[in-house]
């Protein structure tokens, strides 16, 4: 066997190095919201540094004689009660907001990262003490705390306001930092660094901090907008910034009492404040989308790869389900899938959903995330009967207990009051089966129902499924990647590759004599007793990215039998005999070895 | 206290790692500031085995039985509650600082999840080069780039990929990167905790073949942890079966798979789906009842007795020792291998013998 390297063309395409930060930046630049907010913020920063760029009038040049007058030449927004120029004051007011917002955020983020990071990294006493301190501050509503402290210390300078708001605001960031550090700390790459003998500072700086930073950046950007409106609120209430500092909050406050006489005095500072806060919130949103978007696109790519290999994959797209339904493994006679004569592929999404709820039930791999963690199992099972059959609470619970008995959950009556997390993985999967049964479906689609379970528990659950299936005469579509499970329970098999069915066959024939090179490769790569010590057969290359399926036969880059024809023409699903089909141009040659 | 036994395998190989009475209890605590211990998760509770030079010892068992904890104890990522791990005659569980760092050069690890075991914000070159930064004596600075490229080549990846990030690789490729990092310091022992469990079926075989090749090339000893019994059999010379923090049975792969004498091993083997529909009817399937008990409150005596169909009085009162059962002791049969059961007997569940 030639040495196999995984340099499939699909990955060659991803040529240049792409860091996660780079990806986030690229996503950000594609987001129009980011541009709008960035331009606004840049503008704000500029005028807070050089307000004279926009106005030649001083915000302090007041003329009591023009008190509350409307717009006049050279004074487009009119005058305040003191007779100052509203336009100039609005322009100059930006400085207080921007400075307070940015300084508070930086200080709060610094405090939050240090305390939250230490608490998360060292755990134990550090965590207990630091988290307790954080909780005390966190318990104080920032606004209320601000009012009380600022009235006592009779503050008023930008410095005191920033200091106070960051002292009250850091715990929010610390919480995020702490949990980000804890989750980064538990990652295997940190363990791997330790196993190599890395020092503590190295682990913190090189492995944990860069990975914990993203969520902190997101909350900090969003917090910035909040701090700006908070400063305005405090100034409005008269405890924040004090004249002679120019602040939108102060001006809004003095304008508010005169709203009937001179609404123009309120309009401009209030509008400027709203736009500023909005700009920062938009920026925060865009940053969050970009940073999370990376995770999403990575996991999407990863999931797609698994999807190809395991036939229909973990997160089954509706499309994939329908694909299987159109070509069911023979447990389900074709007529039942063309439900009531309707073709499920052309049915409206709504009709399909209704159909699936009533007659087709699904069981997923991850039972824990499919159950509501805050409701008891009995309640959730009973809900099916309350909603669908209108039973009373008591009758529904009795039904639920009956079902739990059916799926062999010991002491069903007393356990009906337990919550999902109190059950073991195998028991939870039984509960999922019970839920599926409650609907009395004609068909159960089980998507990797036992993959997350241990072999002995897996055997119990598969046994139960087979038993119930016989008893209720249900169809069962089992989506799995485990060739062993398939051999154990299936009657017929459909093999999927890159989102398409490539072979269908009765189980015995498939294992004895596969008619598609992919199936043959899969079977050959199972370790076998009589070949111990030899190299395992390995299908070369990687499952394709579903967004970039090779031309012609999707399997051709990995196929030992591929010819020129395979690179250009997509093979049809040829019928070879009763229930046997293969999507390979060379199925004859394949069947014959 | 156990001494490093100067045992030598039948074929003259000497043990490179000797594990004696290894115990790890994770305290269960209550209270926030003042922590009060209210119990302990007995994750590993008295495990002993030897690893011979150049061999692969497979460890199987269901999740939660303590396999990963054993791996972490061997790697000193967790402190053992009791017991010893002898490497070159030295108990490494008590080491710290410089001495520990030195041992770490020789014992490395490959992790289960190729998605979480590589730092997503470091380039592949930095990841594989990190061992050299931590142990600068291994490779002079100017030499490192070349070394990293060599390692990439050894694990079958394009050496030009140096500047890419982990998310630009598939699961199988990432696992190769993890293996390259493990090889960097030229270790003697590699602990593999479920190295292929997270990979697609067709890619598993590629990685297993790579590991096989590297073992021969570099004379590595593997401790290969997995829950997939067929993969373990394929790669292992010997196999140990764990249940609830203890070793139930240990022996060569043929002894364990074809002549299991411990009821748990028999149940485990019989539960493995066999990829052969013809075998469906003929198989002796043992469907166990109940769940694995909590390791915080394990049964007395034999750990398996709550699910064992052969359990008797004695199983609750007397802990069966991991030793060759008396009845087989004088035989030269494959049944004569250590099994922690009072009533050990052969039962061919796989239909292989
Ligand atoms: N850090 C920890 N704290 C408390 N309990 C733990 C910890 N790590 C593992 N355990 C427990 O120890 C037992 C063995 O775990 P583990 O070694 O991971 O098993 P395996 O690898 O065989 O699945 C499990 O019950 C697990 O919950
Ligand atoms: S059509 Fe060609 S490439 Fe596709 S499986 Fe058949 S032989 Fe291989
Ligand atoms: S010692 Fe008893 S309980 Fe344990 S495995 Fe043997 S027969 Fe079963
Ligand atoms: Mg584990």
From TrEMBL, chain B:
Protein name as it appears in the record: Dipeptide ABC transporter ATP-binding protein
Transmembrane segments: none
Coiled coil in keyword set: no
KW Transmembrane helix (keyword) present: no
Native organism: Streptomyces catenulae
Keywords: ATP-binding, Nucleotide-binding, Transport
Family: Belongs to the ABC transporter superfamily.
GO MF annotation: an example: ATP binding
Domain of life according to the entry: Bacteria
Stretches assigned to the ABC transporter domain: 17-269
Entry-linked InterPro entries: AAA+_ATPase, ABC_transp_ATP-bind, ABC_transporter-like_ATP-bd, ABC_transporter-like_CS, Oligopep_ABC_C, P-loop_NTPase
